[in-house]
Amino acid sequence: MEKKLHFALIGASGLIGRCLLNEILQHTEAFVTILSRRALGLSDSRCNEIIVDFSDQSSLQEALKGADAVFVSIGTTQKKVKGDTNAYRKIDHDIPIALAKACVTIGVPSFLLVSSVGANPKSQNFYLRLKGEVEQAIEKMAIPYIGIFQPSVLIGSRSEWRPAEKISQLVMPMISFLLPVVYRPIDAKTVAKAMLGEATSSQKGLKRYTYREMKTNI
To answer: How much is the pTM?
Structure first.
């Protein structure tokens, strides 16, 4: 009997994370371990929800054991952390790197990260600099396949109200033909489908995916 795939997902409550979970459950027979800081109340028999301390490497390693691929789509906002850049950094920077280190230690073969178009460790923009620093740290790690997905504005329905993002979702599609391809808005479902497709395609090495690659890999 063919072994069923086992995925780990971090960020299941977010826009891309929810899309990823739906794609996995609807289009594969894989088991999913969901790592989170608080209970999400998921009830599907193929989901195993684990509450973890993301600063505890031994707990992460135990939670990720047996995973064929780890999907990381965790992220916060300035509003959620009340403008505290240190708190922001602990979530968007420290958690993905801690997860990648755990993957190295226990030998997880695939690590797929949601980053951002324009990520650059030398950027003057806090968000883009943070994303760039995360990419820079993870790309050096000894994981057989590292997929870094760099969407621009995401199209989709979030569980929380973000006025500025909602305006961008409405306006950007109307002017997207004027933008360089990498900055065009993209549906979160498209990102999720591309990530799942790459996770199940025996990829190797470090690969980055912007708009065009994500649209062609679904």
So the answer is: 0.90
**78 to each of 92, 127, 142, 166, 196, how far by Cα in Å?**
11, 10, 32, 16, 29
Q: d(Cα 39, Cα 180) in Å, to the nearest integer? A: 40
Q: Catalytic positions, please?
A: 127, 131
Which sign does the torsion angle of CA 14, 18, 20, 24 carry? positive
Alpha helices in 107-208 (DSSP H): 126-138, 163-175, 188-199
Domain ranges of the chain: 6-216
Ranges of residues in the chain with a pLDDT under 70 are: 1-2, 158-179, 218
Count Cα atoms within 13 angstroms, Cβ side, for 48: 13
Which of 3.40.50.720, 3.30.300.30, 3.30.70.920, 3.20.20.70 would CATH assign to domain 6-216? Answer: 3.40.50.720
